[in-house]
Amino acid sequence: MKIAIIGTGYVGLPTGVGFAELGNEVVCIDKDAAKIEKLRSGRATIFEDGLDEMFLSNVRGGRLKFTTSMQEGVEGADVVIIAVGTPPHPITKEADMRYIHEAAEEMAGFLRGYTVVATKSTVPVGTGDEIEKIIRGRRSQADFDVVSLPEFLREGFAVHDFFNPDRIVIGANSEKACAVLRKLYEPFAGKTEILFVRRRSSETIKYASNAFLAMKIHYINEMADFCEKAGADIYEVARGMGLDSRIGSRFLNPGPGYGGSCFPKDTNAMAYMGRQYGVNLSLIEAAIKGNDERKVEMANRVLDVVKNIPDAKIAVWGLAFKNGTDDCRESPAMQIVAELLKHGVKLRVYDFKAMENAAKILGNKVEYASGVMDAVDGADVLVILTEWPEFRQINLEEVKELMNTPKIMDLRNLLNPAEVRNAGFEYHGIGR
Questions:
Q1: Fold of 2-197
Q2: How far is CA 422 from the centre of its chain?
Q3: Which of 318, 304, 208 is nearest to 255 (CA)?
Q4: pLDDT for the residue 340
Q5: What are phi and psi for residue 245, nearest 5 degrees?
Q6: Euclidean distance between CA atoms 156 and 289, whole angstroms
């Protein structure tokens, strides 16, 4: 099949690579000429575990192409997938739909024959109706259907998740569109649940799923705070909870709060839609508020550890919102760093993959270390903010020798507390 994908970000690019790997002819479209040129030269513009090799293989094989031309990408396509950003409005937090509407407006003139137009961007309920209206307004005779294809790719695991999905959700209001999508997803038939639902139900599923997971994360963080006060161990509590099949063990890891490009944006958008429809989504609203407050609380914990040290120097390991990605959008690490900077402390930061993206946000407000050891040199406290597994391999004796005072704030509970304390550190984790 010929597939056009509009947008080459953290959703569009892995999706395009995945469909090309399955043997389809994929054309990715983006207005950013510099990005397209880089992609054409065989260089992926994002970091995802396992992406580079597969990306390069399909570019060289001619199955994956890139263009700035909507016409070149859309004409003759069987499926056009919209994967552009829907950033939150700075005030209302509703999803900004301008890029979705622009894509629908522009593609309308180039639809040839029957085409399935699919939204893979996370969009408000009713967006499919809007896209349909926009295209129909431009070309009343166009032969097309609009469907919802919510993405469930985890950043850092996008390639794995594409080929090993928990489920594939297809929101379509016509059998003709369903037939095309059955063919597209035929390689997954019998391996995973392919759920066909109404378009508005599909649009809701993505928001409902992410909001639920965000609430689960916030809940276990609240339980971690309780365990610290009550003398319990959050990991023993989480294991006891997770063995209940109604609860499950996933997303019960305490930390500095949820973040990334999806959960904060989607919970805010869901809350906004609730207010629009006059529905009291009190649990989601409470999770949003509590999660925002948690970043401030985490920063205050760090400040409390160095409050008696004049001109304290703080080392930060980790800036990406989680391991396996270079994405710093809505990263708890970045938010905690920003909160610390309000108090005038000196920060030296390091991340294995996210230094470039972090620098675009932080500018010259922090020092950028060349490696993990350079980050801790002369530091009064080490703060771990991203769960890169490589941090576990670091020699603690060497770290201690470089630091002014041996203090570690492990806000990801990445290290073994007993080992860290035996190495002579003052150790602070979460929930124990």
A1: Rossmann fold (3.40.50)
A2: 36
A3: 318
A4: 97
A5: -60, -20
A6: 26
- Pairing type for strands 79-82 and 64-67 reads unpaired
First to last CA, the chain: 53
Residues 377, 369: Cα–Cα separation, whole Å: 9
Q: Please give the full DSSP string across 130-170, using - where no structure is assigned.
A: HHHHHHHHH-TT--EEEEE----PPTTSHHHHHHS-SEEEE
* Closest by CA position to 325, among listed 262, 280, 242: 262
CATH superfamily to which 207-290 belongs: N-(1-d-carboxylethyl)-l-norvaline Dehydrogenase; domain 2 (1.10.1040.10)
Spatial distance between the Cα atoms of 82 and 190, rounded to a whole number of angstroms: 27
Q: Which are the catalytic amino acids?
A: 262
Residue 87 has pLDDT above 90, yes or no: no
Same CATH fold assignment for domains 2-197 and 207-290: no
User: In 3D, which of 297, 362, 296, 373 has the Cα closest to residue 328?
Assistant: 362
Give, as one character, the DSSP assignment of residue 294.
H
SS (H, E, C) 19-75: HHHCCCEEEEECCCHHHHHHHHCCCCCCCECCHHHHHHHHHHCCCEEEECCHHHHHC
Q: Which amino acid, residue 293?
A: E
pTM of the model: 0.88
- What does the alpha-carbon distance between residue 87 and residue 98 come to, in Å, rounded to a whole number? 10
Between β-strands 367-368 and 346-350, what pairing exists: parallel, antiparallel or unpaired? Answer: parallel
Give me the mean pLDDT over the 159-188 stretch.
96
Helical pair 199-230 and 127-138, crossing angle rounded to 10 deg: 150
Q: Which residues partner with 144 through β-bridges?
A: 115
Counted residue by residue, the chain has a size of: 432
The pLDDT of residue 94 is: 85
Task: Report percent pLDDT > 90 for the chain.
Answer: 93
Burial per residue of 339-369, b for 16 or more beta-carbon CB atoms within 10 angstroms, e otherwise: bbeeeebbbbbbbbbbbebbbeebeeebebb
Q: How far apart are CA 154 and CA 316, in angstroms?
A: 24
State the residue for tokens 């080392």: 315
Residue 340, both tokens:
């610390």
Q: Where are the domains of the chain?
A: 2-197, 207-290
